[in-house]
Amino acid sequence: MQLMLGGQLFDLELVNDPDSRRQGLMGRETLAADSGMLFDFPEGTRPAIWMRNMLISLDLLYVDAEGVVRQLFIEVPPCLKMPCPVYQAQQPLRFVLELPAGSISRLGIGVGDRLALDPLLQQAPPAY
Q: Which of 23, 48, 93, 99 could form a disulfide with 88 if both were Cys (CB 3.0 to 4.6 A apart)?
């Protein structure tokens, strides 16, 4: 799917099942500046992301069911040694958007911004 962020068009991989959410971007050596991954979670989920087996740093945007950014984690590094930090949402949310590190600052994205996720917002969240 494509999403306009800060005037830049991003190509996003949508992951909305348990196996693809578990895999995420693990093991990838690069992530293009105009790409990312959008995690769609079941209703009532308080998403938690960790960077185990990651090779690249990421910016994490936690987004509610209305498409509003509620929490940000900026330039999160890969976890090189256990135990790995967990980046958990403060409340139940529907989406986590992973972008290349530095994207949030470069695009000027902030908490309270609304993302144009309209086609997804029309659909029910995935089931567990």
A: 48
